[in-house]
Amino acid sequence: MSDPQDYDLIIIGAGSGGVRLARMSAQRGARVAVVESRYLGGTCVNVGCVPKKLFVYGAHVSEDLEDAAGYGWSFPRDQVKFDWPTLVANKNTEIERLNGIYGRMLENAGVTVIQGSATLADANTVVVGDDRYTARHITVATGSWPVIPEVPGKECILTSNEMFYLPQLPREAVVWGGGYIAVEFAGILAGLGVQTTLLYRGDMFLRGFDDDIREFTAQEMRKKGVDLRFGVTIEAVESDGAHYDVILNDGSQLKTGLVMAATGRRALIDGLGLEKLGVQISESGHVVVDEHFQTAVPSITALGDVIGTPQLTPVALAQGMVLSRRLFGDGNGEMDYRCIPTAVFCQPNIGTVGLTEAEARKAGHQVSVYRSEFRPMKHTLSGRDERCLMKLVVDAQTDRVLGAHMVGPDAGEITQGLAVALKAGATKAQFDSTLGIHPTSAEEFVTMREPVA
């Protein structure tokens, strides 16, 4: 008897996790469809990490030009010009290219792409416009969306989504928030010559990162001209037509040409109809799943940002691999959320993997800390006042390296390699016995001999 359903799996959302799940499941012989209402590739490709990093590269060029003088290069400074629309247009061309690649990957895998907004009519039926599609399994992979706090003048505030298509740069900007996105955009704007103020309600931004990393990053960002203001938040924004008056909770005001909020993201599940089917939603607004991505409804699973796990593209990709294996493979597979490396592409970059010093102590480890701060070799000739920080958190009893943290050029690239070592359970003795590549900043991770704490 033939299967009465149209598909074995319908995935709602063609972001990183959804596309990976679709491709892997189709390769395992499943009949798969993906429903997408916006763009292929999701947040990461379109309004997230990919265009963000392209902007970071663009913003850093100004420093490279300044540093060139120390290496004997000279050029008329009055002839150096930056054109924001050119950067945006070139970024758009690259994103369109990536959209095409995602489309071809799905097509080549035999996945059906359905354009439109989805609603679940029942546990096995997805409605898109006037069409109904049925499937044995439905996966919600719709990602997340920026949230702007409810303050007077909220309509004047932009999010990261709009920043990627900004028609022109202002002379001054206020960035509101203290996480990855806020810190990265503050660096981008400042690097492009915008007088930038970052506001954060806490006493130090980048909550969850190692305290030494947070403080060192603040120090370096201030050197680059970013006005960091902690312990304050926005109460209202007023427009006078050409500028905005930002009223803060301490009674002060800022006049600026742009206000951007990077104050959090929410799971994008509006209109899906999940709760009426019995899918549980947490107090934080995320879809509740077990360790196998299963919701309370047997035919419905979910992955990625909608379930509240770390909002990182590689996490969603790994989840897609695991879920495909569980649904259409041997039924096995587990996610391991330990030692997830991550980077913040501020200037200079942050790279981190494993436990922070505070987390290690809280977990009961007897901790030894190795820390090195130095001037990167490049700046011995450039003259730039920029420094690098590297830190290892070690279990003094087992000698196992619990965490590796860095602020400095190429921190993300360096930390990716260290993540392999930490995942494999490397000890400090093994770090010490590894020969460094000289002269590099990275070699400092294998030459730190004396603990500082």
What report would you give on this structure?
The protein is built from twelve helices and 21 strands. The chain has 453 residues and is an alpha/beta fold. β17 and β18 form a beta hairpin. α3 runs antiparallel to α4 and α3 packs parallel to α6. It is globular. It starts with 6 loop residues before the first strand and ends in a 20-residue tail after the last helix.
User: Major sheet: size, sense and barrel closure?
Assistant: 7 strands, mixed
Indicate the proportion of strand residues: 15-25%
From the alpha carbons, calculate the radius of gyration and give it in angstroms: 24 Å
Poorly predicted spans: none
State the distance separating the first and last CA atoms: 69 Å
Q: What structural category characterises the helix and strand content? A: alpha/beta
What's the count of strands? 21
What is the percent of helical residues?
A: 25-40%
Number of helical runs?
A: 12
What form results from the Cα inertia axes?
Answer: globular
User: Whole-number average pLDDT?
Assistant: 96
Q: Topology, pairings included?
A:
Layout: E1 7-12, H1 16-27, E2 32-36, H2 42-47, H3 49-67, H4 84-108, E3 112-115, E4 118-122, E5 125-128, E6 131-140, E7 144-146, H5 160-163, E8 172-176, H6 180-191, E9 195-200, H7 211-223, E10 227-230, E11 234-239, E12 244-248, E13 253-256, E14 259-261, E15 265-267, E16 300-302, H8 313-328, E17 342-344, E18 350-354, H9 357-362, E19 367-374, H10 379-382, E20 388-395, E21 401-407, H11 411-423, H12 428-433
Parallel strand pairs: 1-2, 1-6, 2-3, 6-16, 8-9, 8-14, 9-10
Antiparallel strand pairs: 4-5, 5-6, 7-15, 11-12, 12-13, 17-18, 18-21, 19-20, 20-21
Helix pairs in contact: 1-8, 3-4, 3-6
